[in-house]
Amino acid sequence: MASIAANAQFSLCSRNCGFPKRLVPSKCFSSSKNKLPLSQHSFLQLRHRVCPIRALESDVPHPLHKGSVDFKRSKDYEQWDSLTSAFSGAANIPFLLLQLPQIILNARNLLAGNKTALLAVPWLGMCTGLLGNLSLLSYFAKKKEKEAVVVQALGVVSTYVVIAQLAVAEAMPFPYFMATSVVVGSGLVLNFLNYYDMLNTTIWQFWEDFITVGGLSVLPQIMWSTFVPYIPNSILPGAVAFFLAVAAVTMKHMGKLSEKGVKFVGAISGWTATLLFMWMPVSQMWTNFLNPDNIKGLSAISMLLAMIGNGLMIPRALFIRDFMWFTGSTWATLFYGYANIVCLYFFNSIGREFFFAATVGLISWLGMALWRDTVVHGYESPIRTLKELVFGL
């Protein structure tokens, strides 16, 4: 009976979790030998949480573990799985607090009839951020990362509220606002349906192609525009990128690309969205370099909230070995949040206590995340964790 039960449990896990049989030794399921507290629920929770993901495979949904899970550590594993999910979900709080002051200020100006004040908010920059949120929303919806989906959906909604305020103030052309509204509404509905496996594959593929072309076209143009007027103002980077993106998507559908090429094109939308957000601190630091006096206009609390929000997602990205997510979150934590806090400190805009508290908190958090991930995997060194993150297995 014990043998039959073990085989039944193994069969159930193979069907639901997708673990290749050669990677899951049958002795792991033998209750007479190992006495492991492995329930059906335990395996279903672990079914797509912990696969090291190569850079070109970052968009693969339901990643499966490839053999490094020690099932004897399943309890610690599940606990850290739940905690990292909770951390990722908690990122909603600082991100919401980051956007609310702008929304409230815009509302006050609109109620006071001061529409010109909203001209200070660049609608094109808001639309760029919106595209990044939509791309990452699609990325995480495909991977079934619920907490990250909520974070990005909240980012889409809050940014759209600001854009709607700009349209009311006539700070954004109405036709562009209507087009943006259609894209936002479609994106939210399509991602919701795809998350619950209720969407036709063809429709989802069309949406992915749209955000791939859009993201790849916008990214080089934004990067180029950062350095104007030190370089000529031109739409050439965006136009060239648009042509290349359309060509790549077309070749993929025509079957003209290799397997690696198809994976590369599939990963473009997520990576371009990540790079868009990664470029924000570069642009900010360039502005600080050109106009040091402007640093005083930065809010230390806003920078701290940005550091906390992105930092809360690092343990989850590390745990599921999502190199793209880890890169974006770590970059934003260090170079957007913390780097601007350093600038504020050196320009005497914040006190020593604030700076050192932020520094100690950041180092402690990153160290804890790396140490805990190494422990739950049963590794002797965090170097192996980082190698899995970057190179996969």
The tally of beta strands, per DSSP, is 0
**SSE-based structural type:** mainly alpha
- List segments where confidence is low: pLDDT < 50 over at least 5 consecutive residues: 1-50, 62-68
CA radius of gyration is 23 Å
Tell me the major beta sheet: none
Assembly state: single chain
Distance between the termini: 37 Å
Strand content bin? under 5%
**Secondary-structure element pattern, one letter each:** HHHHHHHHHHHHHHH
Mean pLDDT comes to 82
Q: Could you estimate the helical fraction of the residues in percent? A: over 70%
Q: Shape, please?
A: globular
Short précis:
By secondary structure, this protein is mainly α.
Notes on the structure:
The radius of gyration is 23 Å and the shape is globular. 71% of the residues lie in helices and 0% in strands. With 393 residues, the chain is mostly helical. The chain contains 15 helices and no strands.
